[in-house]
Amino acid sequence: MAEGLQGVILTFFSTSSAVGKTLVSCNITSELAREGARVCLVDLDLQFGDARYYLHLSPERTVYDWQEALKRNKGASVMNCLTEYSYRNVHFALLSSPLKLEQAYNIDVEAMQKAVLQLREEFDYVVIDTSSTFSALNLAMLDMATLVLFLGIVDFIPTIRNMKVGHETLKSLNYDRSKIRLVLNRMGAKTRISREDVERLLDEKFYHVLPNDFRAASASLRDGVPLVLADPRAPLAVSLRDLVNRCLNRQGAIEAEAEEGGSWLKRIFR
Ligand SMILES: Nc1ncnc2c1ncn2[C@@H]1O[C@H](COP(=O)(O)OP(=O)(O)OP(=O)(O)O)[C@@H](O)[C@H]1O
Ligand SMILES: [Mg+2]
């Protein structure tokens, strides 16, 4: 990154669990890293975070250790708490969720905000995986985000009701409208509810739709290699790459860089 520029923060959020936040955030991180960007994935699903399992990593330090280090020394660096993921020539960092459930209880919002602020100085992208609640921590991560990827799936009425509540709540936060991107995951999975019905209910069209691809998703979980790296031609991998390109407005980005000296924020909001 050029001096003085700060990294883009992408926060993945949903109002129901098991809609794909971790799978998608791991893949978006991998795709950005594959393209040569410096990327850090932050797993803030404090109690049940599983990014490390998705990536078959065994972190020695986590957000818990970061908070402890910060208590001892206000000048601590979060870079000492990261775990490196490598696959062939692709590398990125993970700031893992705590290894033990009891370590998750007293993680404070301010310490996590400090971590993200430090990380955005060091990385081009900070990708944040969250849990499915409007907790103080998640609200802070929504606030800090450059873009929020709000994920949903169309399966059962409760999931859709939660998506509606979540969508209304996100709107009430009065962010720039272009900051929130509605993403429908697992399109094509068996359901009696149509995408159009959900769009009508939400009064907004999905920004991007990811296909259901059970085989590819389970294989990448089994092998610990995100799909965009392991099976880049799988329809889900293609669609994940497409999501990256759309979020970063790639077509306009090249012109923007030339005109504006390469500001990442300006790229996104063009
Ligand atoms: N597009 C997809 N096609 C098929 N399977 C998928 C797809 N996206 C996610 N999955 C599968 O759905 C399950 C839930 O995904 P994931 O763990 O990413 O959800 P999550 O939103 O992070 O859940 P949680 O809130 O519990 O952390 C996983 O088994 C994952 O492999
Ligand atoms: Mg998850």
Topology overview:
Blueprint: E1 8-13, H1 21-34, E2 39-43, H2 51-54, H3 63-72, E3 83-87, E4 90-95, H4 109-122, E5 125-129, H5 136-144, E6 147-153, H6 157-172, E7 180-187, H7 195-202, E8 208-211, H8 214-223, H9 227-230, H10 235-247, H11 250-260, H12 264-269
Parallel strand pairs: 1-5, 1-6, 2-4, 2-5, 6-7, 7-8
Antiparallel strand pairs: 3-4
Helix pairs in contact: 1-10
The protein binds adenosine-5'-triphosphate and magnesium ion.
Structure characteristics:
270 residues, alpha/beta, Rossmann fold, 8-stranded mixed sheet, 8 strands, globular, binds adenosine-5'-triphosphate, binds magnesium ion
Commentary on this structure:
The protein has twelve helices and eight strands. With 270 residues, the chain is α/β, with parallel strands linked by helices. It has one domain: 3-Layer(aba) Sandwich (Rossmann fold), CATH 3.40.50. The protein has an eight-stranded mixed beta sheet, sandwiched between helices. The relative contact order is 0.18. Bound molecules: adenosine-5'-triphosphate and magnesium ion.
